[in-house]
Specification:
The strands form 2 sheets. A 5-stranded mixed β-sheet has the order 5-4-3-7-6. A two-stranded parallel sheet has the order 1-2. The relative contact order is 0.16. The chain folds into 2 domains: about 70 residues, Orthogonal Bundle (Helix Hairpins); about 80 residues, Transcription elongation factor, GreA/GreB, C-terminal domain (Chitinase A, domain 3, Roll), CATH 3.10.50. It is built from 3 helices and 7 strands, in the order βααββββαββ. By secondary structure, it is an alpha/beta fold.
Amino acid sequence: MTKFPMTVKGAKALEEELKFLKNDRRPELSKAIGEARELGDLKENAEYHAAREQQGMVEARIRDIEAKLSNSHIIDITTLPHTGRVIFGCTVDLINLENDESTTYQIVGDDEADIKLSKISVSSPIARAIVGKEEGDVVLIRVPSGEVEYEIAEVRHV
């Protein structure tokens, strides 16, 4: 079975969501279903059907999180020796060689990616282009508008 990379923060976030769903959301929905049952005829009971639908979504999410955590390979980047090479979990400063603009990304697992937080998936085109490269290397990255050259300015293990 394939293991999927995940950062320590990503694993912790999934564990917290799982705990919330199991300890708070699941009992809350169980209570709502019980209260809706007391309202009478289940065939035309919108509250009952809505609560059951939410319960199904919560149970599916719980199974999804449990599967992700059981198939994850959690990588703590802070414990790995700094070599200047771009690897999963590191934070990379890139300089666009056309306009000298600097961009910073952290390379994370697919489920953790959030471009608003400068976290890109390890399977994204940018990450695929820079993983394995070292500080000072120039890489050509294909973007929707064409190709852009970036220099890897700094690789950090934070």
